[in-house]
Specification:
The complex is a heterodimer of chains A (370) and B (325). Chain A is mainly β. Chain A contains four helices and 27 strands. Chain A has a four-stranded antiparallel β-sheet with strand order 3-2-1-27, with no helix packed on it. Chain B is α/β, with parallel strands linked by helices and 325 residues long. In chain B, strands 1-6-5-9-10-3 form a six-stranded mixed β-sheet, with no helix packed on it. A five-stranded mixed β-sheet of chain B has the order 13-12-11-19-20, with no helix packed on it. The chains are: A mainly beta (370), B alpha/beta (325).
């Protein structure tokens, strides 16, 4: 155990100089700008356009940061390197583009796109060819929070879908398309019982699949899902749902089925996977104020990471190196970026100003440093 | 820190200064003349300030020192204040002192109403006033409402024409002409300047057994999403669990809220009523959620003024809107 700890410390020390994170900073939401902070020295560099920049999303290899931003009357996806160089704007068909996420290879981006803010199609951008393609076909409207699915998750989903009764839907045709181009997990707005609802949707290049996950949720009825994403190892899908009365984190395990992961009478939301897929960090009111907690996917054990009675703590980002966590806290009077050990120990301010500091995201991952 | 309550009758008029000299917020953030506190004799309310001070309320020369219990919340000094049981009803200024020195005074910030619950009441609403650098017309309009029925005046949507400082000065002057409590809910035009004159971010207040959530409409959906903070609406919604109705006022169209915030407010724990500023054409605003009663407030030049009734059956617009003239 001691040898393991020494190796771990040596590993962390070797990578300490390379660790950096992107975040948003500005006096108000209209002036937010993407910045990069060296998490060791605390040095901050402004790299974003500063036009109501959206949350920064670093590429898997840490070479690029994608973010949404205004460009005149348009909302565009911008790319920039962490050192501020290479800034470019993606070539869009629609004027309103938001919420970018990287494919696991870093070769493609997926985001919502439309002529108007409420149109919300799913667009996939191939960086090598500088080409944007809308996915989902004619039914691909009202789609939000899109993410690419890892290959392992794809296989699990297709296997599960083949055993479900989907009416006239030809899952085998979708299977061929998915194996060729991949699949996207998204949230789709839909109508049910005379009102709007949201559900987890599977999107291919040409269609939106029937709501497969709804058929295996624990309770029948109309519930609002949000923020679905696969675990890094591809074995499970986490999502939020108000099934059960308040907002909870659910887990779809292809071995165990669907279960309420956080199950508490206070709301739980914004689950963020750590790189090894052992646990999620999430936000909850269970401590009285909004705090950051950890829940293990296998034992559903919950521990507090950043929770206090006199301030809010939110937006957790577990380190790819496993040694620390970033989060936002307003315990200093305004939202600032804080850093703590992976278990929440020794919290300290990383970036502080009289304005807003929000949406921290680590840059890079261990594999790319080696 | 606690201070014994004292009822002092001041022989001299209180200092005329209000807020900072330029009208921006001083030592006291809330309550103020656009974000008032509502309470009853012997009741309680909360003050948010830059630092601990001695607090009192003042009206027509009557100064009432407040019993306060200070704590820290998100880096701000927060005082839980208790009124004496014999505090006369009325609309008071709030004052902050260091020793005997008055360091801040905000008029019309604390409304002490008659004790005893009122199961039914009305309040008045104005949408999108877009006050320019000359607020005289709106001052006349708000003054005219002083003697009409209505527990308070809710002004929602674009408070100012462009968010310029001169327009906020004119807005403050117009509010000062009103003899009733005034509640402001900003819209997209009001921009960053709003935060210098009123407390920024979501606000709320309780009126009797009802809770009112004031949803800042200054930022577009994209900017709200930029916060990457799906819990913000959660926090606000959770802050008010009234015994009866929860009413939300939004300073812009429904798109000013991101989808995640809409789930919080209209699906997970639906508010009972939503007050939305509307266009002059009276078109019904798009609202796709089922459980919340939407009350559209069409706007126009110098009005109109809408009347909303709250009673055990719910909230509803009553009668045709009247002119603010």
């Amino acid at each position: 155990m001691a040898i393991l700890r020494i190796l771990c410390l040596a590993f962390c020390a070797a990578h300490a100089a390379a660790q950096s994170a992107a975040f948003l900073s500005g006096p108000d939401p209209a002036a937010l700008r993407v910045c990069v902070v060296d998490t060791v020295s605390g040095a901050v560099r402004e790299v974003g356009a500063g036009q109501s920049d959206g949350p920064p999303v670093p590429s898997p290899d840490g070479a690029w940061i994608a973010y949404a931003s205004h460009d005149g009357e348009r909302r565009v996806i911008r790319l920039v390197k962490p050192d501020g160089s290479g800034a470019r704007v993606l070539r869009h068909q629609g004027d309103w583009n938001e919420d970018p996420r990287w494919a696991h290879t870093g070769a493609r981006l997926v985001y919502t796109s439309g002529r108007r803010p409420e149109e919300k199609r799913v667009a996939v951008y191939a960086l090598a060819s500088d080409a944007e393609t809308y996915w989902g076909g004619d039914t691909g409207l009202g789609l939000m929070k899109p993410v690419f699915l890892p290959e392992r998750t794809l296989g699990n989903i297709l296997g599960a879908a083949l055993t479900l009764n989907l009416g006239d839907f030809d899952i085998r045709s979708a299977q061929a398309e998915v194996l060729g181009g991949g699949m996207i997990l998204a949230i789709q707005a839909a109508a049910a019982e005379g009102r709007m609802t949201t559900q987890v949707a599977l999107v291919t290049k040409s269609q939106v699949l029937p709501p497969v996950l709804d058929t295996i949720l624990p309770h029948k009825g109309v519930y609002e899902e949000w923020d679905a994403k696969a675990s890094p190892d591809g074995r499970t899908i986490s999502f939020e749902s108000d099934d059960g009365g308040d907002r909870e984190l659910y887990l779809l395990s292809f071995q165990k089925g669907v279960y309420n992961l956080t199950n508490h009478y206070e709301a739980d939301w914004n689950g963020v996977w750590e790189p090894e897929s052992d646990y999620l960090l999430f936000e909850s009111f269970r401590g009285g104020r909004r705090g950051v907690y950890k829940v293990y996917a296998d034992t559903v054990r919950v521990t507090a990471i950043a929770a206090s009675r006199d301030a809010d703590n939110w937006a957790p980002a577990p380190s790819p190196w496993g040694d620390s966590v970033l989060f936002v806290s307003n315990r200093g009077g305004t939202p600032d970026i804080w850093i703590a050990g992976a278990d929440g120990a020794d919290p300290r301010t990383l970036v502080q100003s009289p304005g807003l500091e929000l949406a921290p995201a680590w840059i890079g991952r261990p594999e790319e440093d080696e | 820190m606690k201070r014994a309550a004292a009822l002092l009758l001041c022989g001299i008029a209180a200092a005329a200064s209000a807020r900072n000299a330029d009208g921006t917020l001083g030592a006291i953030a809330t309550p103020n003349d656009g974000q008032p506190a509502f309470t009853t004799p012997g009741g309680a309310f909360t003050v948010t300030a830059r630092a601990e001070t001695n607090l009192s309320i003042e009206r027509d020369g009557l100064r009432i020192d407040l019993e306060t219990a200070w704590s820290t919340d998100a880096g701000h000094a927060v005082a839980a204040c208790t009124l004496p049981a014999d505090a006369p009803p009325g609309l008071y200024a709030i004052e902050a002192r260091q020793g005997d020195d008055l360091i801040d005074r905000t008029p019309r910030a604390v409304h002490v109403r008659e004790a005893g619950e009122s199961a039914a009441y009305v309040f008045r609403c104005v949408a999108n006033p877009r006050v320019g650098s000359d607020g005289a017309a709106w001052a006349e309009s708000l003054a005219a409402l002083s003697n009409q029925p209505g527990a308070f005046i809710l002004i929602t949507g674009n408070l100012t024409a462009t968010g310029a400082d001169a327009e906020f000065s004119a807005l403050l002057a117009a509010l000062g002409a009103c003899g009733k409590p005034t509640v402001v809910c900003p819209g997209p035009n009001d921009g960053a300047a709003f935060g210098r004159y009123f407390a920024g971010g979501p606000q709320g207040f309780a009126y009797g057994r009802d809770g009112f959530l004031i949803l800042d409409g200054r930022w577009t959906a994209a900017a709200v999403d930029a916060f990457n903070d799906p819990g913000a609406a959660h926090v606000l919604r959770r802050s008010f669990k009234p015994g009866r109705w929860t009413v939300a006022a939004l300073g812009a169209g429904i798109d000013a809220l991101g989808m995640r915030a809409q789930l919080d407010l209209f699906a997970d724990d639906p508010v009972d009523a939503l007050l939305l500023p509307g266009g002059a054409d009276g078109a019904e605003p798009f609202f796709p959620w089922g459980a919340t009663e939407v009350i559209a407030l069409p706007s126009g030049e110098r009005g109109p003024v809408h009347t909303v009734r709250a009673n055990p059956s719910g909230l509803a617009l009553i009668g045709p809107p009247s002119s603010a003239d």
